[in-house]
Amino acid sequence: MDHAIRLACQWLQDTPVGAFMSESTWAFPTVEALHILCGNVPLIVSTSILSARLTGWGLREYPVSTLVKALLPWAWGAFVIQVVTGVLLFSTSAPRYAATYTFTVKMLLILLAGLNALVFMRTTYRGVASWDTAPVPPAGARAAGYVSILLWFSVLVMGRVLNTAVTLVNLAQ
Amino acid sequence: MVDLLSWCRWIEGTAPAALLRESTWLFPATETVHLVGIVFLVGSTSILDLRLLGWALAGTSISSLTRRVLPWAWLGFAIQLVTGALLFASEAAKMYPNEVFRLKMLMIAAAGVNAMLFHLTTNRQAAQWERNRTTPLAAKMAGLASIALWFGIVIAGRLIPYFD
Prior knowledge:
The complex is a heterodimer. By secondary structure, chain A is an all-alpha fold. Chain A has helices spanning about 5-15, 15-25, 25-55, 65-90, 95-100, 100-120, 140-170. The mean pLDDT of chain A is about 90. In chain B, α3 (about 25-55) runs antiparallel to α4 and α3 packs antiparallel against α8 (about 135-160). Helices cover about 80% and strands about 0% of the residues of chain B. The model of chain B has no long low-confidence stretch (mean pLDDT about 90). The interface of A and B includes residues 29, 32, 36, 156 and 161 of A.
């Protein structure tokens, strides 16, 4: 692992917040529950509802732009909560998390999910006016919908893999 | 009175329970599916709860929202029941005296009773108010209780291993 990254992770773990997160019995599981409840649930639910419409699978009576306007604030709000609670969880054993391949893969998957959304909003969605009420949106929108579902559920799975990997490392110490 | 503890010991000795307990990855894999179940179940109940509270989807008909959301909630509940039973079976005798586990089971029962009471009482007259922006107090209380209980259930679930 890169020296600078290791130093940054060690610094994060040594901050008062990092120390509190690792010393308290309650802090980790409670923040983990909030990571799931206020982050995971609204983020996956809001992106999945939109994906259902984009793939032409359901909610066909709603214009795509109406759903985007209604769901985007929830997705963003949830994402912010994911980042804040995620950093708190990460701070409990930052160097150990960062040293796993799983962590790198999870971060890359999140990046890809963001990129997928960005590309969709900048390209296919620009012309939404012409297919807003179409029961089945164009191929670009359908692809973005499938990729989004696949990536966000993979991120969730990688989160559990990461937790298990670090727990096993901690037990081995 | 049925001896629950010896029943727990018996279930712990069954083949699937032993398999889950002895494998490194099977327990976390089941836990992951349990987490997907949370997304389905808590996601769908929360959508309805937020509508009942008037915090989201104002003006959307509650009966059509319920029709839409309920199949997902039941699917989520089925996933939770199966994966939860497997996770419990793998360490049943240890779970039985765990106070956080008991609290979690009580809260699940309370969430069920809350949903049933709402369905049998306030929701009966839903036709009169279901499109209104502001919902009756009883509906708000049911929504708030549901959200609070599901939060409690998920937090308790995460806390269980810390209270052995």
